[in-house]
Amino acid sequence: MTAEIRLSEIAARVLGALVEKEITTPEYYPLSLNALVNACNQKTNREPVMNLDEEEVTTALRGLSDLDLAGAADTNDSRVRKYEHRLQEVFNFTRPETAVLCVLLLRGAQTPGEIRGRGERLHHFEELSDVQAGLQKLMQREPALVKVLARQPGTKESRYVHLLCGDVEVATADGAREAVGAVSSGQVVDDGRIARLEGEVAALQSEVAELRLQLAQFRKQFE
Predict the structure, then answer these.
(1) Which of 17, 32, 155, 210 lies 20 to 30 A from 201 at CA?
(2) Which fold has domain 96-220?
(3) Quick one: average pLDDT of 83-96?
């Protein structure tokens, strides 16, 4: 697809939820409207947490359908209409690209380390460089689907954000001005400490996932 895509925040959440559930719970996919609303409103793995109703999700689905990004699935169950994403048909993503974009759709701006840890259920990235390779491919699309944000003072890593809702440069600049205003008024913002903690959490999540994989492989030897 060469045309620029401009999704609403709700449409981005709906699309991300459909992609996530196809990979993590394929036995329940495609999703009914009720299941999709619940997936969008999850309190875990979502930033920000939303409280959408069926009408809002239906409106978002209509917009995604107009872009051929999602729509009603052709299933044997005629009693309940179910919905699926069509991201693969539009973009022909690799699994790493799909995982990276899904995390950005559901969690907002992320560092490569955060993407690796939080995307473990979507795709196992052997190395951090694998995440960075996926990000680069998404950035090289025409038009670009991902961009890197300017590194904030006191942080070690840059964050990446998807562009399916449009460019975020203006919003980022506004956020930076608000942060500067808060500091000047006497509020201390320890960005460096927060960034370190987030990186450590993401690293720990990745290590736990790797240990689980190793344990599963070890058990297979005795089956």
Answers:
(1) 17
(2) Arc Repressor Mutant, subunit A (1.10.10)
(3) 96
